[in-house]
Q: What sequence folds into this?
């Protein structure tokens, strides 16, 4: 891969974070799910919040294919000509993710894939879609947490110094070490990066007879004790492992209160896998719940 010599720190650049489109019907096929509720993509909110804090001059846009059509996203990429496009494919959206990656590449963007699904096949993606492939549409894959790696890449840091990257090196595909930073150093999630009301209205429009549901998703921790158990733990899912990392319960309650006050949220969903694993943490979370103005 050609060496990137520029250093973009402090410069203005354009970043699009794209959740590839998926339809309600497609989501519910072979699935017990009924009354699908789309929620703002946490990965994009978290990376976007981090960029807003660290590099406020960046032009940042989240294009969520849960609400936007493929052609709408395509148009916005062609018109907006972003410098960097981050895409998080899921098992049902991989082909669409690649189509959007090709469109982004044609407009001159650097394309970064990440998230649980890209993570587990990172080397294969670079082999088949990276700079040495006949279908070059992906520049690199981020494994694990994306905030620092994505920002480091956009700012032009040398690739070998950026943890969590998988990319085409001169002779082989390189996998940099993965780090698991303290989640408490990340800023409180900024849901203003999308408009949560669009998600609430979409649900109401599809299910007008159901009770109004205003729901947002957060995470209280990352990691899974079952994966780690004596190194012989569960290997069923594709998450990249690492220690259990807990967020400060006070920060979480601040996030929940913001969501209630700003968007009249009536349901909060926690995507974490191990909410009851750490008793001390849970007791503190519960103690604060009893004192909280929105228990
Ligand atoms: S999150 Fe679930 S599937 Fe994944 S390692 Fe843990 S127990 Fe297994």
A:
């Amino acid at each position: 891969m050609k060496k990137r010599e520029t250093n973009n720190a402090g410069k203005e650049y354009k970043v699009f974070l794209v959740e590839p489109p998926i339809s309600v019907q497609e989501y519910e096929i072979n699935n017990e799910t009924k009354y699908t509720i789309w929620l703002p993509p946490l990965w994009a909110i978290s990376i976007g919040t981090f960029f807003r804090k660290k590099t406020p001059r960046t032009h940042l846009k989240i294009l969520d294919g849960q609400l936007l059509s493929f052609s709408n996203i395509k148009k916005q990429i062609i018109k907006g000509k972003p410098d960097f496009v981050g895409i998080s494919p899921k098992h049902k959206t991989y082909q669409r993710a690649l189509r959007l990656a090709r469109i982004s590449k044609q407009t001159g963007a650097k394309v970064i894939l990440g998230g649980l699904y890209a993570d587990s096949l990172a080397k294969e993606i670079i082999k088949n879609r990276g700079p040495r492939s006949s279908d070059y549409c992906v520049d690199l894959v981020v494994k694990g947490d994306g905030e620092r790696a994505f920002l480091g890449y956009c700012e032009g840091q040398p690739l070998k110094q950026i943890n969590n990257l998988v990319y085409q090196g001169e002779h082989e595909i390189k996998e940099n070490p993965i780090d698991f930073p303290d989640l408490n150093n990340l800023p409180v999630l900024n849901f203003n990066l999308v408009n949560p009301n669009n998600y609430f209205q979409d649900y109401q429009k599809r299910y007008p007879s159901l009770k109004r549901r205003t729901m947002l998703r957060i995470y209280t921790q990352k990691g899974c004790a079952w994966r780690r158990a004596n190194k012989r733990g569960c290997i069923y899912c594709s998450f990249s492992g690492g220690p259990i990392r807990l967020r400060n319960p006070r920060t979480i309650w601040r996030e929940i209160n913001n969501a209630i006050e700003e968007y009249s949220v009536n349901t909060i969903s926690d995507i974490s896998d191990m909410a009851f694993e750490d008793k001390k943490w849970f007791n503190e979370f519960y103690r604060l719940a009893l004192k909280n103005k929105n228990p």
Summary: The first strand starts at residue 14 and ends at 19. The chain has eleven helices and eleven strands.
